[in-house]
TrEMBL record:
The keyword NADP does not apply. One of its GO terms (molecular function) is oxidoreductase activity, acting on the CH-CH group of donors. InterPro entries: F420H2_bilvrd_red/Heme_oxyg, Pyridox_Oxase_N, Split_barrel_FMN-bd. Residues 12-117 form the Pyridoxamine 5'-phosphate oxidase N-terminal domain. It holds the Pfam family PNPOx_N. This is Pyridoxamine 5'-phosphate oxidase N-terminal domain-containing protein. The keyword Oxidoreductase applies. It comes from Microbacterium caowuchunii. GO terms for cellular component: cytosol. Keywords: Oxidoreductase.
Length: 145
């Protein structure tokens, strides 16, 4: 099991389920004015890493290039807003890395986002062209309950 998740913690199963099934995460970067900037993103969790596909010219990509401090959290759904999962970590940007990444993760990514991709109205191959920058976020700290 990933080092951030304690098998003895009762919230671990819930958190891993949230990472597998939640469609939106909030990705927070530091803007050039020093203020935090949070945007909703699609994400994919695999073996301790969170992957985000992005258009190369976005503010979040520019912010990461300038300051790699990133915070990512899932929506606090739960019956009382109590399903909380927040990560801090390191981030890498791979320009043009999405096509290669999709060779490995196409099936599970399509399974997770099938309805969202259909609603977006852009086939995955076209999305890989448009959202061609791969952001790889490796959580180093977790806050959750």
């Amino acid at each position: 099991m990933d080092e951030l998740f304690d098998a003895g913690d009762p919230a671990t199963e819930k958190h891993l389920r949230m990472l597998a099934t939640d469609l939106i995460a909030w990705f927070t970067t530091i803007g050039k004015d020093g203020a935090p900037r949070a945007v909703p993103v699609w994400f994919f969790w695999d073996e301790g890493r969170i992957y985000v596909l992005s258009e190369p010219g976005t503010v979040k990509v520019a912010n990461i290039r300038r300051d790699p401090r990133v915070l990512m959290h899932l929506n606090a759904d739960g019956p009382h807003g109590d399903d909380v999962l927040v990560f801090r970590g390191t981030v890498e940007i791979t320009d043009g890395g999405v096509t290669e990444w999709l060779e490995r993760f196409r099936e599970p990514y399509e399974a997770k986002y099938r309805e969202a991709i259909a609603a977006y109205g852009m086939p995955l191959e076209k999305m890989a062209e448009v959202f061609s920058t791969l952001i790889t976020f490796t959580p180093t700290h977790k806050l959750g309950w």
